[in-house]
Design brief:
The protein is α+β, with helices and mostly antiparallel strands. It folds into three domains: 254 residues, Jelly Rolls; 82 residues, 2-Layer Sandwich (Phosphorylase Kinase, domain 1), CATH 3.30.200; 245 residues, Transferase(Phosphotransferase) domain 1 (Transferase(Phosphotransferase), domain 1). 25% of the residues lie in helices and 24% in strands. It contains 13 helices and 31 strands. The strands form eight sheets. Strands 1, 3, 4, 9, 16, 17, 18 and 20 form an eight-stranded antiparallel β-sheet that branches. Strands 2, 5, 6, 10, 11, 12, 13 and 19 form an eight-stranded antiparallel β-sheet that branches. Strands 21-22-23-25-24 form a five-stranded antiparallel β-sheet, sandwiched between helices. Helix 2 packs antiparallel against helix 5 and helix 9 runs antiparallel to helix 11. The longest helix is centred in the middle third of the chain and has 28 residues. The chain starts with a helix and ends with a helix. The N terminus and C terminus are likely disordered. The structure holds 2-acetamido-2-deoxy-beta-D-glucopyranose (NAG) (7 copies). The site of one 2-acetamido-2-deoxy-beta-D-glucopyranose has 5 residues, from strand 2. The site of one 2-acetamido-2-deoxy-beta-D-glucopyranose (NAG) has 5 residues, from loops. It comes from Panicum virgatum (Blackwell switchgrass).
Length: 679
């Protein structure tokens, strides 16, 4: 009797359990995916958050003291049977800072309410406030992506970290932002570098393991090893129903914080993959001052470059004529121009321009490594000797062009300063130095003095790295030629002007020779400048720097990187395009690939790069592909055309002395099919 009663109770309990779990599995599991937020009626925005027309979720713009929230409207069941429900989320964010030192960061949030308790801007990221830090009735869990080191208050290790916050902005776990490659390398990632970064947060309710992983969209697929992997009990934090979303805040330091895509799932399965090819675009940092009316603003945008040029030209003339009144006259435009940094700050950053911080020196001046006090950012500071008009002209060219551009493959000009004879340009520090040193080592350092890192013994670049670098530089050039508001001809594309970040991602630098002109306008003639071996033959005839002359220089770079040889060998004088072509003519084009790679390269890709290098090195400018076509070839969106004809000038394309005899009829014609041989 008694045993059958136990049985019955057991049976009822089992039905209850079954019933419960059935109920839960019907109602509890959530699975969302936003590839952009154009259609997101379920997203509730508050504060400075808004959805831009292109579909990006902007949590804050770069105004001061903002706070933006975006929450999924319905609560998610976070606790079931007294255990936290497993969840998995993936999202792509982008933090864009104008000038140097933005703030303060963004966070993925799981909270008991869509209105966060005591939410405060600045270092509190819109999550909590000074008075309720650490209070267990907050019920706030967050993974923060923090770009400012709060002074002392929050125990933060640096101004670029990922942290796990439990009811408190003093992170329970925190790591400098970065990811691990499969071979165990620790690669740091700058959160506010205007690059799209994907983050994954996974929690296993049964083992209580929380994993956080990040990786730039451009350089890596999901790393296998998480940045943070910890046992954390979320049960005290979570209530039965929790809201999921994002928060970001600015303070005196400000950045625009964007979420581009978001996927979230509970119940144990991994969040759905985000379609990275469909990410919404993020607006370029605005140029005009905010007080103008819209009409004036439109006029201003179109004429801002002309105006700046005129202003700078006037300032330049005045500077030349009357050094005594120079400081006062320049003050106005200096104030008008963004990113001006106080001399004192740069002086302190480099500890008084001490020689120990010298990264390089050359005819133009010196480059120092420094740390900006305010933001803790490591920067490279170029100090130009202004005792020549050339120095001043290049300085103005860089501030006027690079200062207003932003692209992940262009060096980031953080600011500038002019004080008497000292002209200073402040760039993001590129820890891996120049491509040149990686290809040829320091001993060959003809790029001496360019801004570069104090790279230790540079390891041989793998083929994959080389291909990634070439793609990056190509994409930077497409931006300069076609995507920016004006056409920018760089005029000095070469290996020593390609700088490598911590993850070896390339940025094209040194805009001292750059020329700007309107789309569709004919470039003016200029003094012929550039570097031997990278200069298109027609330059000596027309003296016009064009997009095609940049393409020629990029062709030389393609061959140089693939072959590990200089465009013109400094010792033997061998001309690289001709040398590669000769290999092609002998039917073994890929033999031209850098022998130090010892055969470790993708033969198909190597053939493509060499072929492209030859296409770009043709002496007839109209026969070269555009940078956009180059990108399409490199991305495999266009096919090599073997029947195309490569035309070289055999009359010493790079030899100034041969100018009078350089005629198109002296060109040597070959079919590419015969060059590619053995396909
Ligand atoms: C927006 O935030 C304010 C202040 O934090 C709060 O009072 C309000 O209820 C929020 N509105 C929504 C729709 O969440
Ligand atoms: C930035 O956002 C704030 C709050 O939404 C808004 O008031 C301000 O006008 C915005 N500023 C710019 C420059 O768009
Ligand atoms: C925690 O917050 C609750 C609700 O806001 C408040 O009543 C309580 O006093 C706070 N506790 C502490 C220690 O501040
Ligand atoms: C900050 O960190 C130190 C050492 O890790 C620790 O002793 C201290 O309690 C922490 N402070 C706060 C507010 O968590
Ligand atoms: C992290 O949280 C756990 C409780 O989940 C606590 O025991 C531990 O002290 C916390 N560590 C830090 C550094 O705050
Ligand atoms: C990764 O590198 C950073 C410095 O770049 C260092 O602070 C951090 O501790 C490293 N992380 C691990 C797990 O080694
Ligand atoms: C967390 O990462 C570890 C190590 O990669 C892995 O074994 C574990 O399955 C991960 N857990 C979750 C919940 O993703």
């Amino acid at each position: 009797m008694s045993s059958s009663r136990v049985c019955l109770i057991g049976y009822l309990a089992m039905i209850g359990l079954l019933h419960n779990s059935l109920l839960y599995s019907v109602t509890a599991d959530v699975d969302l995916l936003y590839n952009g937020f154009q259609h997101a009626p379920d997203l509730i925005l508050n504060g400075s958050a808004s959805i831009l027309r292109g579909g990006a979720l902007q949590l804050t713009n770069d105004s001061n003291n903002l706070m933006g929230h975006a929450f999924f409207n319905s609560p998610v069941q976070a606790v079931s049977d007294n255990a936290v429900v497993s969840f998995s989320t993936a999202f792509v964010f982008d933090i864009v800072t104008v000038g140097q030192g933005g703030g303060h960061g963004l966070a993925f949030v799981v909270a008991a309410s869509k209105v966060l308790p005591g939410a405060t801007a600045e270092q509190y990221l819109g999550l909590l406030g000074k008075n309720n830090q650490g209070n267990s009735s907050n019920h706030v869990f967050a993974v923060e992506f923090d770009t400012v080191q709060a002074n002392g208050l929050l125990n933060e290790t640096n101004g670029n970290h990922v942290g796990v916050d439990l009811n408190s902005l003093v992170s329970n776990v925190s790591e400098p932002a970065g990811f691990f490659t499969d071979d165990g390398k620790n690669i740091s990632v700058t959160l506010e570098s205007a690059q799209r970064i994907q983050a994954w947060v996974d929690y296993d309710g049964s083992t209580k393991v929380l994993n956080v992983t990040i990786a730039p969209v451009s350089v890596a697929s999901r790393p296998h090893r998480p940045l943070i992997s910890r046992v954390i009990d979320l049960l005290p934090i979570f209530k039965q129903d929790m809201y999921i979303g994002f928060s970001a805040a600015t303070g005196k330091l400000a950045s625009s914080h964007y979420i581009l895509a978001w996927s979230f799932r509970t119940g144990g399965a991994a969040a759905q993959a985000i379609d990275l090819s469909r990410l919404p675009k993020v607006p370029k940092p605005p140029a005009p001052p905010p007080s103008m009316s819209t009409v004036i603003r439109i006029v201003a945008v179109s004429s801002v470059v002309t105006l700046t040029t005129i202003l700078l030209a006037i300032a330049f003339t005045l500077w030349l004529r009357r050094r005594a009144v120079l400081a006062e006259k320049l003050e106005e435009w200096e104030l008008d121009h963004p990113h001006r940094l106080p001399y004192k700050e740069l002086y302190k950053a480099t500890k008084g321009f001490k020689n120990s911080g010298l990264l390089g020196a050359g005819g133009f001046g010196q480059v120092y490594k420094g740390v900006l006090r305010r933001s803790g950012d490591v920067v490279a500071i170029k100090r130009i000797s202004s005792n020549g008009t050339q120095g001043m002209r290049e300085f103005v060219a860089e501030v006027a062009s690079l200062g207003r551009m932003r692209h992940r493959n262009l060096v980031d000009l953080r600011g500038w300063c002019k004080r008497g004879q000292d002209l200073l340009l402040v760039y993001e520090f590129m820890p891996n130095g120049s491509l040149d040193t990686h290809l040829f080592g320091d001993r060959a350092g003809t790029g001496a003095g360019k801004h570069r890192g104090s790279s230790p013994a540079a390891a041989l670049l793998t083929w994959e790295q080389r291909a990634m670098i070439l793609r990056g530089v190509a994409s930077g050039l497409v931006y300069l030629h076609e995507e920016w508001e004006q056409v920018v001809v760089h005029r000095d594309v070469k290996a020593s002007n390609v700088l490598l970040g911590a993850d070896m991602a390339p940025r094209l630098g040194d805009f001292g020779l750059a020329r700007l002109y309107e789309h569709g306008a004919a470039p003016a003639t200029t003094r012929v400048v550039g570097t031997l071996g990278y200069m298109a033959p027609e330059l000596t005839v027309t003296a016009r720097a064009t997009k095609e002359t940049d393409v020629f220089a990029f062709g030389a770079l393609l061959l140089e990187v693939a072959c590990g040889r200089r465009p013109i060998d400094p010792v033997t004088g061998v001309n690289l395009p001709r040398w590669v072509r000769d290999h092609g003519a002998r039917g073994n084009l890929v033999r031209a690939v850098d022998e130090r790679l010892d055969g470790r390269y993708d033969e198909e890709e190597a053939r493509l790069v060499l072929w492209l290098g030859l296409m770009c090195s043709q002496s007839r400018p109209e026969a070269r592909p555009s940078m956009r076509q180059v990108c399409q070839y490199l991305d495999g969106e266009a096919e090599m055309q073997e029947e195309a004809v490569v035309v070289f000038s055999d009359a010493g394309s790079f030899d100034f002395a041969s100018l009078p005899t350089l005629t198109w009829s002296s060109c040597n014609t070959m079919s590419v099919g015969s060059l590619l041989g053995g396909r």
